F-box/LRR-repeat protein 15-like leucin rich repeat domain-containing protein
Amino acid sequence: MHSPGGPAGAAQPGPGRGRGLVQALGSGHRAPAPLASLSLAYCSSLQLHQEPERRASGPKDPSPQPQGPSLLMLQALKELDLTACSKLTDASLTKVLQFPELRQLSLSLLPALTDKGLVAVASGCPSLEHLVLSHCSLLSDEGWAQAASSWPRLQHLNLASCGQLTEQTLDTIGQACKQLRTLDVAMCPRISMAAVRHFQAQLPQVTCVQSCFVGGADLTLTL
């Protein structure tokens, strides 16, 4: 993800500004230019999707009316940062994260993200090369078993502090993500040192495995 001094075509709203941005996106006005990179990190009030509202009208208008903004118009996006957007749910991510060309995505610090949301993101964003899911404590091996095969291009993956993950997830990633170059599983207490070494043997092209305090130990493998 780009820092606040990112390239042209990138937008990095600070805390509290994300709501105004996505409301503008959903207001019907054309975006001034196609965005390639967008950061909404730490916009704690951000909600990407609201459930449709039914009008109190007659039988001629039975359909629900969509409410709220959508990022779906930004199909040129290559990078998206939703770090610490704590109100995001599986439902909102399922409806909005549909970017076939997206390359980089951060969903770090999303306390409500579960395996259901992970699988939906994998389906909607199959071209990811860089994915950050650190501190998503509800993710489990079952979710990765369903999602990993959707990300054959993945090169950089951060799963730090995903406390439910075990060596099963490492095996799944090793089989599905053959282009992986770096992996961060620091602070994952259910992943052992032996599992990290086995993973490194599976994917010799991986140049760095960050594994501080894995299984109570501290190891960083760099080749």
Summary: Residues 1-9, 51-58, 61-68 have pLDDT under 50 and may be disordered. Residues 35-46+75-206 form a domain with the Leucine-rich repeat, LRR (right-handed beta-alpha superhelix) fold (CATH 3.80.10.10).
